[in-house]
């Protein structure tokens, strides 16, 4: 078992709600809404127009620049509209709406690759063409991450910490498809020219760890399985690198600056599938859970499926639900309509009930210092809060507000119930002179 990083918290992880639910395939909906922006980087340009017939796996959004990722149809059918639609980020984003013909007719380009014959640049090309992005939620284009790490890194880390409460999508893919995840790791190692990788899994996934151990080739095949002490936010990139290697990513720096590159476990699974079958990023596993979900589930669903369909497949809402979150309860975002679609980075949909609401009318700091003790970035959340209230840009910069990873540990631990993360987000804008 590895040591851990500075700070952090041990929230009730709520994973028991869905961790024993095997992945179920959710039948595709009658209509998918596929936004042209589902990644960090330039928005895609629609490659189809209203009335066009499209096939499953066909490119419907072209990437206009290197830091971008093409977007594919997740069904076969007819384009019903190309227009702005509500995105999980709360904005209207240009989207391709496709009426599903129910035939799942594959695009001719969807075909397996001759794996043994692939060069590193072939693998990067397949990852790029498949539109694979960081599937743990960050959604940074994977081909760009590989390219920027080439020749600069000696350590590849696979992030299977899945430290956010309730989410079990990666847990289930590790448990149910360990071979496919490991094959994806080997492909990424080949693409990077590395002969070693560390697969880092939190100890609360004992069954998945056992399944992976059984599938690792004798001698480990260059892949070291590392069991991590369970602690939030273990899966944050900088914290994971520190735990696994002891290296500290410098302020404002990137993992490659300390010789590391990090991929999410589901991303590895997606890479393997793109190589083995030719299927691009058209579906993903989403955990539908939380105290307000009747039958917490892990659903393999097509990109563009409306969230309301996932909720209904998980038995519908239960209790006094006051918030629906996409992503985890610590770092995810509340959504205000269940009509928004699943996008590439959607790893969970959570329904929270009233008793989990931490909002109070008059939050007050009692100067206990607990927020400082848990901050994994060694910041002083209380003083960031004070500077934000005063609009003190110089103070915020002096306190390194931009280093905050918005993990929410400080707000979670705060007995005064200060809305520290919202305040720090606002503080970042003040520090940049944008407020
Ligand atoms: S944890 Fe909350 S109450 Fe304690 S010092 Fe920090 S902001 Fe104040
Ligand atoms: S200040 Fe930022 S990094 Fe530190 S605990 Fe709070 S949210 Fe996390």
Beta-strand portion reads: 15-25%
What's the CATH topology label of the domain at 111-277?
Rossmann fold
Low-confidence stretches: none
Strand line-up of the largest beta sheet: 1-14-13-17-15-16
User: Which class best fits the helix and strand makeup?
Assistant: alpha/beta
Number of helices, where a helix is a run of at least 4 consecutive DSSP H or I residues: 13
Overall pLDDT confidence:
94
The sequence of SSEs as H and E is EEEEEEEEHHEHHEHEHEHEEHEEEHHHHH
Report Rg.
21 Å
The CATH architecture of the domain at 111-277 can be given as 3-Layer(aba) Sandwich
Would you report the number of β strands?
17
| Fourth-level CATH superfamily of the domain at 111-277 | NADH-ubiquinone oxidoreductase 51kDa subunit
- The CATH class of the domain at 111-277 is Alpha Beta
Description:
The structure is a single chain. β5 (59-62) and β6 form a beta hairpin. The protein has 435 residues and is α/β, with parallel strands linked by helices. It has 13 helices and 17 strands. The radius of gyration is 21 Å and the shape is globular. Among the domains are: 111-277, Rossmann fold; 370-431, no CATH class. The site of one iron/sulfur cluster has 16 residues, from α12 and α13.
List the helices and strands and how they pair.
Elements: E1 23-25, E2 31-35, E3 45-46, E4 53-54, E5 59-62, E6 71-72, E7 77-86, E8 92-100, H1 120-129, H2 142-149, E9 155-160, H3 169-176, H4 178-192, E10 197-202, H5 206-215, E11 223-228, H6 237-245, E12 260-264, H7 265-277, E13 283-289, E14 297-302, H8 307-313, E15 321-326, E16 333-335, E17 348-353, H9 370-374, H10 381-390, H11 393-398, H12 409-413, H13 420-431
Bound molecules: iron/sulfur cluster (2 copies).
């Amino acid at each position: 078992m590895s040591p851990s990083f500075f700070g952090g918290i041990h929230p009730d992880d709520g994973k028991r709600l869905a961790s024993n639910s095997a992945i179920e395939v959710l039948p595709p909906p009658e209509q998918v809404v596929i936004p042209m922006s589902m990644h960090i980087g330039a928005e895609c340009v629609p490659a189809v127009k209203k009335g066009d017939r499209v096939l499953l796996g066909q490119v419907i959004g072209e990437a206009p620049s290197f830091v971008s990722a093409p977007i594919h149809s997740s069904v076969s059918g007819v384009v019903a509209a190309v227009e702005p639609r509500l995105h999980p980020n709360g904005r209207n984003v240009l989207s391709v709406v496709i009426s599903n013909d129910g035939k799942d007719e594959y695009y001719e380009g969807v075909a397996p690759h001759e794996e043994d014959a692939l060069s590193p640049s072939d693998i990067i090309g397949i990852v790029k063409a498949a539109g694979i992005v960081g599937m743990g939620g960050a959604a940074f284009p994977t081909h760009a991450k590989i390219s920027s790490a080439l020749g600069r890194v000696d350590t590849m880390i696979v992030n299977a910490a899945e430290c956010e409460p309730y989410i079990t999508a990666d847990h289930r893919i590790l448990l149910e498809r360990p071979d496919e995840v490991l094959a994806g790791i080997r492909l990424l190692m080949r693409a990077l020219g590395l002969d070693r990788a560390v697969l880092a899994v939190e100890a609360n996934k004992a069954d998945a760890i056992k399944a992976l151990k059984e599938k690792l080739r004798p001698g480990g095949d260059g892949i070291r399985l590392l069991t991590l002490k369970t602690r939030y936010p273990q899966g944050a990139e900088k914290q994971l690198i520190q735990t696994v290697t002891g290296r500290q990513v410098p302020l404002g720096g990137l993992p490659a600056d300390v010789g590391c590159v990090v991929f999410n476990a589901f991303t590895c699974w997606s890479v393997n599938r793109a190589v083995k079958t030719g299927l691009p990023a058209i579906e993903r596993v989403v955990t539908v859970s939380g105290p307000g979900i009747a039958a917490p589930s892990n659903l393999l669903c097509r990109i563009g499926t409306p969230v309301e369909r996932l909720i209904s497949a998980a038995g519908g809402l239960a209790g006094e639900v006051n918030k629906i979150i996409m992503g985890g309860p610590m770092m995810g975002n509340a959504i205000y309509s269940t009509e928004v679609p699943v996008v590439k980075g959607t790893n969970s949909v959570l329904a929270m009930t009233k008793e989990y609401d931490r909002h109070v009318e008059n939050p007050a700091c009692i100067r206990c210092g607990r927020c400082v003790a848990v901050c994994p970035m060694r910041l002083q959340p209380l003083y960031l809060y004070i500077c934000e209230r005063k609009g003190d840009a110089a103070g915020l910069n002096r306190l390194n507000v931009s280093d905050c990873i918005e993990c929410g540990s400080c707000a979670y631990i705060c007995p005064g119930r200060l809305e520290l993360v919202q305040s720090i987000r606002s503080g970042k804008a003040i520090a940049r002179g944008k407020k």
